[in-house]
Every structure is written in C-alpha cells, then in structure tokens.
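Hi there,

I know you've been waiting on this one. I reran it after we fixed the sequence typo, so this is the corrected version. Both the input and the resulting structure follow.
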Amino acid sequence: MFDRQDGYYVTKGVQEAVPYQLKYFCWQLILQRAKEKDPTMDYLQIIEFDVDTEHELLTIVHRQEKTEVKQIYHLHLFEEYRSLNVKKIWAIDDGQAQTMLLPEEY
C-alpha cells in the first residue's frame, strides 16, 4: 500500500481546503509508514486535525482502522493553519492511484 512513486492525487475539496504545506506533510506521514514496509498498512489512512488557538498547536492524528494503528503529532499553529476548517481527510490506495479526499467526497 502507498508504495508507488507516482499517481498521487488530491480532490478539489482537499485542494481548496487544506494548505499545500499541510497536504505535503500528510503525504510524508503516509509515505514514511509505507517505507517501513508495515504489512498491516491499510488501504485507507485517516488523518484528523485539531486546531488549538489557545495553546498555539495543531494536533494531527494519523490512524487506520483495520489493524488499528495511531500516531499523534503536535505542530506549531502557523498562521495559515488557524482558519483550517477541515477536521478529517482520508487517503485511499485503490491499487492504481493514491488519492487524498474529504470523507464527504467519497
């Protein structure tokens, strides 16, 4: 899963709602996990965001449901992330392409 070097796509919803640097960071999280050759890596990767303006943090939870795995990251809340309205994105590897989308676009 997620081990090809080409065929990475984002839907219009992700393109418009998620800053470029954050999309790139999310792909890197997924690709790092794929690089580790984890045999339990699922075709569906879930990434959740929580903006905490009080503590100036963006929390990112990268997880999957089948063979439950969860990793949590805390980033400094950069200005471009303050208005992030997206709470969750999915990345799906269907065997031909790897696509990042909003759950409501499925």
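Quick highlight: The first strand starts at residue 8 and ends at 10.

Best,
R. S.
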